Amino acid sequence: MKVFTLVLVMSKSQILLGLKKRGLGEGKELYEESGVVADECDLLQRGIMTMYFSDSEIPFKIHVFQCNNYRGEITETEEMKPQWFGIDHIPYDLMWNEARLWYPVFLSGCPFEASFSYDGKGDIIKHVIHQLP
């Protein structure tokens, strides 16, 4: 299983999202993709997602963290163009298909576990999201 970490930076009623210019996240640090530094004590684990692919690709496990405190200047990089969005104006049509399913749970403040299964074309064929206490 490939393990990834996703850090979502929040500020009041906004979320920092990044338009990926190339590739899928490859273990890059938050700083390398956005210019932002977050201390471990400022990260709140909010969810764990597992993604299964029908083409026998190794499944992904993604640990989702929320960060409200950060240092540094938000900067566009070769890989990503970070931009603030109001939580009521998230551009789901530009995001991975599963985002519209799990972001509302994340934004509600509930910790969660989710799994997504994809067909060979990358379409979701099954998903389960559990809100945790």
TrEMBL record:
<protein>
    <recommendedName>
        <fullName>Nudix hydrolase domain-containing protein</fullName>
    </recommendedName>
</protein>
<keyword id="KW-0479">Metal-binding</keyword>
<dbReference type="GO" id="GO:0042262">
    <property type="term" value="P:DNA protection"/>
</dbReference>
<keyword id="KW-0378">Hydrolase</keyword>
<comment type="similarity">
    <text>Belongs to the Nudix hydrolase family.</text>
</comment>
<dbReference type="GO" id="GO:0046872">
    <property type="term" value="F:metal ion binding"/>
</dbReference>
<dbReference type="GO" id="GO:0005737">
    <property type="term" value="C:cytoplasm"/>
</dbReference>
<dbReference type="GO" id="GO:0008413">
    <property type="term" value="F:8-oxo-7,8-dihydroguanosine triphosphate pyrophosphatase activity"/>
</dbReference>
<comment type="subunit">
    <text>Monomer.</text>
</comment>
<dbReference type="InterPro" id="IPR003563">
    <property type="entry name" value="8ODP"/>
</dbReference>
<keyword id="KW-0460">Magnesium</keyword>
<dbReference type="InterPro" id="IPR015797">
    <property type="entry name" value="NUDIX_hydrolase-like_dom_sf"/>
</dbReference>
